[in-house]
Each structure stands twice: as structure tokens, then as C-alpha cells.
Design a protein that fits this description.
This protein is mainly α. Helices cover 66% and strands 0% of the residues. α2 runs antiparallel to α3. The two termini are 15 Å apart.
């Protein structure tokens, strides 16, 4: 955030504004072409793995739905297993969406840039979590929620 909205008075800056300014001053090294190649390979492998997992999860759910229930215990166990499969599939689908979006940012030349504030995410963060879209400061702000 800018200090103009606060009248430039450091006494009224929030904790998050101070952290943002401190991190901006100590920005990490930029991404190199080799880093982008590594990220592209990791993201592509991750997308392929997630697609395979989603296909296997759907096959397992279909087979489970097709299986006949012998008694109430079978019905309960089947329902619980289907819920677990659905939960796993939802998590995999969400990660796949973030992975594909990261690949799109890579192709567009905006990989490693925070989608919220527009600042570099930092080389280490971009390589450790290539599917992430936020810098550390914005991720912490999102986690803190309104009223932080």
C-alpha cells in the first residue's frame, strides 16, 4: 500500500504495510530462463499426474456405484467412500486449475508475478510452488482475512 493514503505518517501504517515495504526492499533474485524451463516441466508433469489421478478416481467411483449393496453396512461404507473420492477429486481439480493457470501465466510471460499486487513473487517461491499465484505478503493477507 502507498503511504499517500495515510498521509505519510509511519505511526498509522499497518503491520501488513510495513511487512510489504520491508519485503519489497529485500526482493529475491529474478527468474532465469532455466528457471522458467524447470517450472514449465514441473507444471506439465503435475498437470498430467493430476489428470491421471482424476481419471482413476472417476473409475473407482463408477465401479463403486455399479457394485450392488448386500446390506445397510455396505450402503454406509459405499456412501462414505464415495464422499472421500469426491473430496479427493475436488482437491485435485482445484490444484489442476491452478496448475493450468500457472502454465498460462508462463506462456503469457507473467509467471512469477503476484496476480494480486503485481510484484515479483520471488525466485524461491516461484520454483518451490510453481502453481501459486500470490506473493508471500498477499498470501498472508488472504489467510488473515478481513480485519486481519
Amino acid at each position: 500500500m502507498s503511504d499517500r493514503g495515510r498521509g505519510g505518517d509511519p505511526e498509522v501504517w499497518t503491520h501488513w504495510e510495513v511487512r510489504r515495504m520491508n519485503r519489497a526492499e529485500t526482493s529475491e533474485s529474478p527468474l532465469r530462463p532455466r528457471d522458467l524451463e524447470e517450472a514449465a516441466a514441473r507444471l506439465s508433469e503435475q498437470a498430467d499426474r493430476l489428470r491421471s489421478q482424476l481419471a482413476r478416481t472417476e473409475e473407482a467411483a463408477s465401479a463403486l456405484r455399479a457394485d450392488c449393496d448386500l446390506d445397510a453396512g455396505d450402503s454406509g461404507a459405499k456412501a462414505m467412500t464415495l464422499r472421500e473420492l469426491r473430496t479427493r477429486a475436488e482437491a485435485d481439480e482445484a490444484l489442476l486449475e491452478r496448475t493450468v493457470a500457472a502454465l498460462d501465466r508462463l506462456r503469457a510471460g507473467s509467471f512469477g508475478i503476484c496476480t494480486r499486487c503485481g510484484r515479483p513473487q520471488g525466485r524461491e517461491r516461484s520454483l518451490a510452488l510453481p502453481h501459486t499465484e500470490l506473493c508471500v505478503v498477499c498470501a498472508e493477507e488472504r489467510e488473515a482475512g478481513p480485519g486481519g
